[in-house]
Amino acid sequence: AVVSTQSTGQFMISEVERGSIARQEAVSMIPPLCLDVKSHHTVLDMCAAPGSKTIQLLEALHADGPSPTGLVIANDGDNKRCYMLSTQTKRLNSLAFMITNED
Length: 103
Hints:
- By secondary structure, the chain is of the alpha/beta class.
- It contains 4 helices and 3 strands; from the N terminus they run H-H-E-H-E-H-E.
- A 3-stranded parallel sheet has the order 1-2-3, covered by helices on one side.
- It is globular.
């Protein structure tokens, strides 16, 4: 079967919106991997938006179960980017998460 570029693009968009797929730059993947986050850690992400790195940190925090004792604090200096961050992270439904908007 031949898959068109348009249908692949539509699939990618719908899966990103559902939260099944997250696109991420390789440079954003490195800090969470190097930090080796555990469920009891508190992590401050100072340049959190658009959210892919923050989501990766939250997933690491939840790796041992649904109720980590740690916390991810996601900060961004731009209010519009914080809104985008809240939209991205809403899908995870985590109580171990806080967004701040500070320079």
